[in-house]
Hints:
With 107 residues, the protein is mainly β.
Amino acid sequence: MDLSDNRMLELLEPLMPLDRSGEAVVYLDTQLMPQGASIRLGSREYQIPFVGYFLFVDLMPEANWSHPAMGVFISREGDKVSSVKVEFPPFFGDPPATYRRLSLENR
């Protein structure tokens, strides 16, 4: 990977709602995504705006179905960030093998 976990979390931090940042859970898809690739979040499909990584930010991890979350795209170099408000994750049940949880502790 081109970016460290800490750098990705630094880029994510300004996007986090203050009232949810303490309980949020962040999943990083470690697979580098090509520009124009698509990812499905609930019933909507989103295009990856640049070569980079996708992070799913669950803002209410203890909630049940359909709740505030974010999809965040970070370019491979870390110079571009784009986010979308979503209500569903890109996976159901256990995360796929390419996903891993990033720790927000000590931030």
